[in-house]
Specification:
heterodimer, A: 102 residues, mainly alpha, 4 helices, B: 474 residues, alpha/beta, Rossmann fold, 2 domains, six-stranded parallel beta sheet, elongated
Chain lengths: 102, 474
């Protein structure tokens, strides 16, 4: 039984945990909402898994489950990124007046 | 060749996610960072489409339907409705992961374990043991299901469709524990049974258990603790995606999901620390269900008129606004911004003191005030403002309660004792805008409201602030 590829995946998983901790720990609290909503959009990466379930040869049951997954993941991804962008567009400095008001 | 290209693209996408999150951490680069991470997502999707044999009708149809719904929701939502929308999106992410787990399990049952593992190897180039795949499916379903219904409950509480007060029943912890144990047994049965009917039954039971667990975990949590829960559920949705990545042995799913999982956990920790409570306490105590503890507050609340407040504000050299959830409810942020502008023109130094857990989600107040065009330099964190608070002439508390309650500093019997607060009581004069005389979500009397230098301005926060603005105009 070949376990090496699995260990490699586990390796990436572990490093990503530490990377995530490192990246976030210094974010100022004023950005917490966009950060959360932005990372929430990233969790929509599950769309990749959903798309891979849509193989031509699969049974209708598997495909429809995959299709539903694609729909919900797309809502998460598209909605998540757009709403974050809308939020961030409002964060303005004092001297940059004249931008489009939200 | 195709597989190599796809995986290289996945690596590029992961790098974009990492830089994107990094840039989200600073106000100047945040917007660019978010777009960078969106490009990463696009890249990951495009790379996936390079796999041969996808059913294009369903691919395009699914992405279109979901994309349009997401885009409409994101453009239509009002800024005050942001917390519940983020919760809802988060829940959909969890549901998507659950469905991915379901689809993979269905495939496995359709063609049998051997066939499934063979197909997986053809797709990913990796041979894995069957138990591993089934274990990953079980965990995806569990975490995805909890994320889904947990987020739905959070959405309901945030949007007012469900009561914000904690719902507790006797033996709740025990029930949760038993259900968790049952879910783990279900996963074990799936791993043992793999493509057998028993495993299928166990899988169905697991879905039900996960969905109920998500509800049970979130209902006992009060409205004021929502920032913690939202951050935690955000973390869960990432973990669910990472688990789905383990099913299909996909690097980008594992890495991106894990990044989100870790960052959500950090945020959860920050929120807990801002309330001086442990995660366990937030999740299980049903804080606010009972209003016991804390010594009684002496004295009485002294109401003031808008006119009185105007004369004091007119003479003030420095003013600090302390917004809370009440400001969001009253939609007072634009009026507040107007008042702040007038005070500045009048020569006062204006600051906004933002408590880390003010509002219903992390950073909630910042988003509302940014919507009202308050420059973010004026939004200051708790420690910064507390340092200068004794020199501040007027502190205006708008719909904030527990985050300014001095009992947290000096009453060891108080349930919120030890929670860091904004020291509004140290300002020379404090005006508290409040709808009525009732207590906040925690059911505690707020010692600040009874302070020597505190005056209460009762009524709708927006109306009160607008009246104040009117006084200046006279």
């Amino acid at each position: 039984m070949e376990l090496a590829p699995l260990l490699l995946l586990l390796f990436a998983f572990t490093l990503a945990i530490f990377l995530g901790f490192e990246l976030i720990s210094k974010v100022p609290s004023q950005l917490h909402t966009p950060l959360m909503s932005g990372s929430n959009a990233i969790s929509g990466i599950t769309i990749v898994g959903a798309l891979l379930a849509l193989n031509v040869g699969e049974s209708p049951a598997a495909k429809w489950l995959g299709f539903a997954a694609v729909v919900f993941a797309s809502i998460n991804v598209v909605g998540g990124y757009m709403v974050t962008d809308r939020m961030l567009a409002m964060f303005k400095k004092k001297d940059t007046k004249g931008g489009p008001g939200a | 060749m195709n597989a190599v290209l796809i995986n290289l693209l996945y690596i590029a996408a992961s790098i974009l996610f990492i830089f994107g999150i990094k840039m989200l951490g600073s106000a100047d680069t945040a917007r660019k960072g978010n777009r960078l991470s969106a490009v990463g997502m696009l890249l990951a999707v495009v790379a996936t489409l390079l796999y041969l044999g996808l059913d294009w009708t369903m691919v395009v149809g699914g992405v279109l339907v979901g994309g349009v719904i997401g885009a409409i929701a994101a453009t239509r939502v009002q800024m005050t409705g942001m917390p519940e929308l983020v919760a809802l999106f988060n829940g959909f992410g969890g549901l998507a992961s659950l469905l991915v787990g379901g689809a993979e399990f269905q495939k496995l049952r359709d063609g049998g374990l051997e066939h499934y593992l063979g197909a997986l190897q053809a797709q990913s180039g990796v041979t894995v043991p069957g138990w591993f795949v089934v274990l990953a499916i079980g965990l995806t379903v569990l975490v995805g299901g909890v994320t889904f219904t947990g987020s739905l409950v959070a959405w309901g509480k945030l949007s007012g469709k469900l009561s914000g007060s904690p719902a507790l029943f006797p033996g709740q912890k025990l029930v949760n524990l038993l259900m968790m144990a049952a879910a783990l047994v279900g996963i074990a049965l799936m791993v043992g049974g793999k493509d057998s009917p028993l495993a299928f039954g166990a899988g169905l039971a697991l879905v039900a258990l996960a969905l109920v667990l998500g509800v049970l975990i979130t209902v006992p949590i009060g409205g004021g603790d929502m920032p913690v829960v939202i951050a935690l559920l955000n973390s869960f949705s990432g973990i669910a995606a990472a688990m789905a990545g383990f099913i299909i042995l996909n690097n980008v799913l594992v890495v991106a999901g894990c990044l989100v999982g870790a960052s959500g956990l950090i945020l959860t920790g920050i929120m807990c620390k801002a309330m001086n409570r442990s995660l366990g306490n937030v999740l299980f105590s049903g804080f606010g269900a009972t209003a016991e503890g804390g010594s009684g507050v002496e004295g009485e609340m002294k109401p003031a008129s808008v006119e009185d407040a105007y004369y004091v504000l007119e003479a003030a050299q420095s003013v600090v606004f302390v917004p809370g959830y009440g400001m969001a409810v009253a939609q007072a942020q634009h009026a507040v911004k107007e008042l702040a502008g007038i005070l500045e023109e009048n020569g006062a130094e204006v600051r906004f003191a933002i408590h880390p857990v003010a509002g219903r989600m992390p950073g909630h107040m910042n988003v509302l005030l940014a919507e009202a065009d308050v420059p973010y330099e004026q939004l200051q964190e708790m420690d910064q403002v507390n340092a200068v608070m004794p020199t501040v002439d007027v502190a205006i508390v708008i719909g904030a309660n527990d985050v300014v309650n001095p009992a947290a500093l000096n009453d060891p019997a108080s349930p919120i004792y030890g929670m860091p607060i904004i020291n509004a009581h140290e300002a020379k004069t404090v005006y508290c805008l409040k709808r009525g005389k009732g207590t906040g979500f925690s059911g505690l009397e707020n010692a600040l409201f009874f302070g020597e230098n505190t005056r209460m301005l009762y009524g709708d926060a927006k109306a009160t602030v607008t009246e104040l603005v009117g006084e200046f105009g006279k």
